């Protein structure tokens, strides 16, 4: 793959249908989680893992046509942390929940391999053009989501480039919450300049 194919616009164009399906699945899962807790008069705050796992269960069912796989070795203690999606031949997508906007550095080898990849940013110390620089054959990204009740409060597409200070370090981040809340019919994926130094 060329370096530009690891950039935010190219990745978003490839992943947009998958991201829409994932957003729909998470919203349905959150609605079901709220209904289950209301029916049993449970307080979600008393067991947030249960609330998030109910949301995960429905989202997984919604994603079944995408053949989701679970990496049992990789358990960050986060809903859907072991979920691996291969929506295109050149993309691997994970789904991680984070209320504070940070994802802990994975402790497992598979998780560490996933977040460790060359930056897609332009290298000022080379004469090779931005678009033609050789990169790995797979672009690894993750969706970082958070919710309050049945409403998503965060839905970001993130490309990691390693870890720093015990957390995953983003190469670039595309906030997509507003695009998912009010998609324009026929408009396709939203254009973005995220992560560019131009």
Describe it for me?
With 198 residues, this protein is α+β, with helices and mostly antiparallel strands. Helices cover 30% and strands 24% of the residues. The protein contains four helices and six strands. The protein has helices at 8-40, 48-62, 109-115, 177-181; strands at residues 69-70, 83-88, 91-97, 139-148, 151-164, 167-175. Strands 1-2-3-4-5-6 form a six-stranded mixed sheet. Strand 3 (91-97), helix 3 (109-115) and strand 4 (139-148) form a beta-alpha-beta unit. Helix 1 (8-40) packs across helix 2. The longest helix has 33 residues, at 8-40. It is globular. The mean pLDDT is 82.
Radius of gyration: 17 Å
Largest β sheet strand count, sense and barrel closure = 6 strands, mixed
Number of strand elements: 6
The overall pLDDT average reads 82
| Order of helix and strand elements from N to C terminus | HHEEEHEEEH
The total count of helices amounts to 4
Low-pLDDT stretches: none
Please bin the fraction of helical residues.
25-40%
Strand percentage lies at 15-25%
Structural class: alpha+beta
List the helices and strands and how they pair.
Elements: H1 8-40, H2 48-62, E1 69-70, E2 83-88, E3 91-97, H3 109-115, E4 139-148, E5 151-164, E6 167-175, H4 177-181
Parallel strand pairs: 3-4
Antiparallel strand pairs: 1-2, 2-3, 4-5, 5-6
Helix pairs in contact: 1-2
Index terms:
alpha+beta, globular
